[in-house]
C-alpha cells in the first residue's frame, strides 16, 4: 500500500463509494506513513481503542501538528465556545455528559425520547404533505435536512416563530463543515463566524429567559437543574446546545438520506418496510453498519505509548479510527458488503462505542425509524433519478448533498 490510500479516501472522486478503499486499507490494520496519522480499520481494534482509557479526545494532548491532519476541518463541529464534552476526557467529560443526560435520558428522564414520538411523527407527516411535485423530489432539501433541525428546536424549546431563523443558522454552519475548494475561504469563514455568533447570542438570550421562567424543555433543564455535579455555566450550556445542534443534526441528515438511498437500491427491503413498519428497527441498525453517517473518527490521540498488532503507537500520536471500514470487516461480519436487515447480530460501530458513544443515539434511531417507515409507506413507487447522487465534500460526515427521486404520487 502506498501513501495514496489516505489521499484517495479524502479525494472527493471516491466519495460515492469509498468501500473498496477501506477494503484495501484493512490489509494494513495499523497504517502509518511518515508524519501522518496512525489509521486503524479492523473492527476489533477500533472497538478496543474506543474503550481504552489511554486514548484521548482532547486535542491538547496531541503532539502532531494540526496541519498533519488533513481532516481536522471536516470533523470540526466546534464554535468559539469552550470544548463540548465530545472533545474532553474524564473527569470533565463525565461531569458534563452526566449533567446533559439528566434532562435527556435514563435514569432521570427515561421517557424524554419516547414521549417525542407523536411530535416527531407529526413533523414527518407535515414534510411529506408539503411535497408538491412527485416527479422530482430532493429528499435532502425537502425532508432529511429540515426534519432533524426542527426536532432539535422542539427539544431545546426554541419558540416556533424563531424556528426559521434557527434553520438558517444551522444551514450556514452545516455548509461550513464541507470543504469547498473553489470558494473564497475568507468569505466562507466570515459567513460561518457570523452565523455561529448570532446563534450563540440568540441561545444566550434564550438561556437567560429560561433561568427566569423555566419550562419543560431541555434548555430550561440544562440551565436550571442542579444535582451532585452542580449547575452548568452559561458557556457550558451554550457549548452543549451547539453540540446537540451541529453534531446531532448532521449525523441524522446523513442517516436518513443514506438510508433512503440504500432502500431504493434494495427495492425488496423497501417493499417489506412499506408493508411492515416494525422492520424499521433492524433496517436502521443495519444501515448504521452498512452506511454509517460518521465514516471515521480523526480526532483521537494516545496518552502513552501503546501497542496494536505489534505496532507501537507513540504518546501524542494522531489516531484515525475508520468506523466504516470496521463495520465491513469480514472477520466480524459475514458477507459484509451485503445490506441485510435480517442479520442476527448487528453490533455495529455506527454510533461509536465506549464513553464517547453517540449521546443522541436513542433520538437519532427513532427519527430514522419514523422517517424511513413513513417514506416507504407514503411514496408510491419511489425511484432514484440519479445514481450515484451528488455527495457532500465532507469525508467524515459522508452523505448525499442532494437525493433526487421521483414517485407516482403521495399516499395519505
From TrEMBL:
InterPro entries: Cyt_P450 (IPR001128), Cyt_P450_B (IPR002397), Cyt_P450_CS (IPR017972), Cyt_P450_sf (IPR036396). The keyword Zinc does not apply. Keywords: Heme, Iron, Metal-binding, Monooxygenase, Oxidoreductase. Pfam families: p450. It comes from the Bacteria. Its EC number is 1.14.-.-. The keyword Membrane does not apply. CDD domains: CYP164-like. GO terms for molecular function: heme binding; iron ion binding; monooxygenase activity; oxidoreductase activity, acting on paired donors, with incorporation or reduction of molecular oxygen. SUPFAM superfamilies: Cytochrome P450. It is an enzyme of class 1 (oxidoreductase). Belongs to the cytochrome P450 family. This is Cytochrome P450. It comes from Streptomyces olivochromogenes. The lineage of its organism: Bacteria, Bacillati, Actinomycetota, Actinomycetes, Kitasatosporales.
